[in-house]
Amino acid sequence: MTRFVLPFAACAALGAVALAPAAPAPVDPVVMDAQKQRVAAIKKVHPAVVAVCMPDGSGCGSGVLIDPEGYALTNFHVVQPTGPFPTAGLADGVLYKAVVCGIDKVGDVALIKLVPKEKGKPFPFVKLGDSDKVKAGDWSLAMGNPFSLAMDFTPTVTYGLVSGVNRYQPPEGKGLLEYTDCIQIETSINPGNSGGPLFNMDGELIGINGRGSFEKRGRVNSGVGYAISINQIKNFMGHLYAGIDTDHATLGASVGTASEDAPLAQMVVKQILEESDAFRRGLKEGDQLVSFAGRAITSTNQYKNILGIYPKEWRLPLVVRRNNERAEALVRLMPNQTKEVEKPGQPVPKGPPVPKGPPVPKGGPAETAGMYEARKGYSNWYFNALERDKLLKKVKDNFGDFTAVPGKWALEGTFQMADRNGPMKAEVTEAGGNAKVTMKLNIETALEPLKQTDLVQRQEPIGSGGLMMALYHYHRFLTVGPKGFEGLFAHAGNEPFYPPPADGSAPKSLAALRVDCAVLATKHGSVSCKWYFALPDGTPLGFETYLAPDADDTADRDPCEVYFYDYKAVDGRKLPHKMVVHYRDKRYAALTVTKYTTEK
Amino acid sequence: MRTTMFTRTLFVAAVAAVALVPGAPAADPFADTVKTANRKLVKVFGAGGFQRLNNYGTGILVSKDGHILTVASQLLDTSELVVHTYDGVRLKAQVLATEPELDVALIKIRLDGKKIDEPNGLDLDHFDFFEAAKRPPAEAGDWVLALSNTFEIALRDEPLSVQRGVVSAYAKMAGRRGVFEFPYTGDVYVVDAITNNPGAAGGALLNRKGELLGIIGREIKNTQSDTWMNYAIPITAKTDIRTRVTVKDKDGKDVEEEKVVTLTMPEFVKAAMEGKYKKFERPKPIAGAGGFHGIIFVPNVLERTPAYIEDVIPGSPAEKAGLRPDDLVSFVDGEPVISIKAFNEFIGKNTRAGTAIQLEVRRGESLQTVKLTLAAQPGKAPVVPKANPGPEKK
Asked: Minimal Cα distance from A7: which residue of B?
């Protein structure tokens, strides 16, 4: 800055020499204002920048605190060598014990938690920005600990332009560390800056620095660095807080340009996996992809960018063009990393399996004692239980405790289907191993959920995808809780949920239905469910019941979807008085409950 | 919201400041300038893709019909040149003219079914090159923006990468690529940002208003410091070209004469756009020119192979003067001889048959002075050097 205004300042000084040799050179107020703003931004965020230290003192990565409890973002490749118990230094020179919470190996992100020196003492933290608003040509600040320069953890600040946004950088080895939709910066980042924050000039966190194009210049800044966009990290934030070893996603289809030589790139489906949700939603080879999650698909990089920022199992709207007709559908994403297939009939392994990765020191340091629990699929099960219980408590506080009414539940009211309507009655009894569900819509059906194993019977009433089974799990979820789900009872991160209009009208758009939810995943017997709770108040908006997620006939893999509306109090507890049931791409029925009977 | 408002106020302030202070301050955002400039640039794809030669680069649109300025690299050495415009359209292109001594080339978009020189109906955003060339060059200390497809980060409609820097110097540069000297030796903008990466060549160096200043050059190393250069060739670049012209001598006979002409980038671009650019006749290679000495040097394998004598041709001036194998030619007419190439250049430039020269040669530990009178170049008859003589008998 000084350098820039020098010619002008020098001229002014020359002119002034004769009159007043000591007169200060005038500096344009705009320059001074910009400098003030920059200094203020740095001052604001400075205390929240973290130096993540390697165990043997072999160097440092960087990180940034994002909430007062001490949760901090960094790169996965920074905590990979530290194991579950990194140490972290703050700008005040104090070294803290920390524990790894959630990890995103593909996205190269990790969430760690610093343990305060005094219990409950808040940490300084930064505000998350909106990286979709960042443009090429914007100023940015990178902070961190390049070359482990600062022995007292005082962060180094570098300043420069955003060179590009929505950049794609392919994975580095084994499908990991893929940078999608990332921010390209000329702001110097060097070894040691990894995991550190990228800020806009308001001091809001817009990305996590992690990678550069180095090539011939050795492993130092070559004018091209990349930061993982904070909006991508926001999609995974629920997973990271819940200690999940998260995965990114694929559509289940290979997509390429229709013709390399075409003047404009058209992205078409080249091949599609039959087990993908996209296939069941009607995606076919040769379909042209128009947009995904509301963003136009114009190139291979763009397609990878759009897809790459979402966790597996997220449901997002896909628009395709086939024979000049436009079709839109919600598609559930498949996992990216190859899943170890659980063979049916295999005994459920008892106790947590041995974790892979770096060896865990016994118990870890005293400060983090009890804050780490290994479990397959989770980077730290301790945080999953923590987040899950927090969510359950919130739901209990707002909607009531149902453990006092574990007996028979009866629902009375009416049903509406596409072609008929009439009175509805349903009953759910737990009764130990003799659980039973009966339901009368048009005709009467009954199910013994633990005894009947035939899929066709389990999916009754016909066309519902297993509504009786769903009600059995709903009853169990509310009245028994975690103890009732021997297979799994876990926090599954955050996901979007799309409750259709209760009255059956056509929605304005699929995207307009989206409500961001915290998700619990359960498994009891062979049936898995996903439960959706609106952020932030925890309203249960519905659930999905998967009777046969691995069925050989892939058509049977779709869940029975139940959406809740119209919460009213029943004996001091709140229950939904309207439910809409969807299966495959159709609305099966809407149930209006006029009376709940909940027995003790 | 706060951000937007802040930005707006700042922008107004900056505009006001521009009027007052030449070379205004640094706070206004570049996003709009970058967006506008990106529409005037293309990604270029051509030959390469092996041995660290990139098959991608950048180009600057200088007409609505799709005339594109880029560097004269191996990229253009193909009949399948392709460009991607800012909106992702893939188009074929053709080389119109190249000028190695400015390291610049003009290519043009070629539409199927249209001749290269007929109106093609395109209406592309472009830089007004000739207006830009009228402006005085930027000075050391001025802020600049560099836009290019560095590292081939962008494809199709993805925007090019932008960097910001300061002009460190506007000066002559001696550079090289590998062992070859870089042909352009005129003034360049040296910048403090790391602009010259793979794929960046042909990108635009702009002032803060988005006006064209120069063309980002290829990756080359500074001959003096052996470091990678970050530079751009100014659009007003000038170079002196040694060329051959035919003139009448005093007897009215046609003779070839060497002449130095000055070529500027705007002259090149104008002529190339009009399809009138003709390459200058370069002087004939130096080998064979000048007087005949009869020295056979060791194989010339390095950029600076020392001028060791391997052998001398029997009956040649060199043999007559007593030059021997393993002599190191160190000075010719008082000029230091740093390499075989330098010696050949000196002979080619300064001598003819009958010229007497004086060499200082190192023989063993001593420096010997040797005088010889050059002869006429022998005819095409093969010259067979005599067998390597054994060690001299004492």
From this structure: B141
**Interior/surface letters A484-500, b for 16+ CB within 10 angstroms, e for the rest:** bbeeebbbbbbbbbbbb
Q: Do A163 and B163 touch (CB under 8 A)?
A: yes
State whether B79 and B187 are in the same domain.
yes
Q: Does A131 touch chain B (CB under 8 A)?
A: no
What is the total count of domains within chain A?
Answer: 3
- Residue A371: give its domain's CATH number: 2.40.10.120
Contacts (Cβ under 8 Å, ≥6 apart) of A263: B89, B90, B91
Average pLDDT rounded to a whole number, residues B280-307: 77
**pTM of the complete model:** 0.80
For residue A282, give the CATH number of its domain. Answer: 2.30.42.10
More confident residue, A1 or B253: B253
Inform me whether the pLDDT recorded for A5 exceeds 60.
no
A77 a catalytic residue: yes
Do the chains contact at A3 and B141, CB–CB below 8 Å? yes
β-strand pairing of A444-447 with A586-598: unpaired
Whether A142 shows a pLDDT value over 80: the answer reads yes
- Cβ pair B195:A223 closer than 8 A: yes
The 3-state secondary structure of B42-107, one letter per residue: EEEECCCCECCECCEEEEEECCCCCEEEECCCHHHCCCCEEEECCCCCEEEEEEEEEEHHHCEEEE
> Is A186 close to B193, i.e. CB distance below 8 A?
yes
Q: In terms of CA atoms, which chain A residue is nearest residue B156?
A: A299
Chain B CB contacts of A221 under 8 Å are 194
pLDDT at B17: 37
**Model pLDDT for residues B162-211, shown as the tens digit of each residue:** 999 999 999 988 887 766 778 898 999 999 999 999 999 999 999 999 99
Task: Look up the domain containing A444 and give its range.
Answer: 395-598
Top residue of B144, B163, B166, B168 to mutate, by most chain A CBs within 10 Å, is B163
Which pLDDT tens digit goes with each residue over B171-185? Answer: 988 887 766 778 898
CATH number for the domain that contains residue B339? 2.30.42.10
Residue A349's pLDDT band, with cuts at 50, 70 and 90, is: very low
- Dig out the tokens for B282 from the structure: 């370069």
Of B25, B153, B219, the CB nearest to A167: B153
| B91 close contact with A: CB closer than 8 A | yes
- How many domains would you assign to chain B? 2
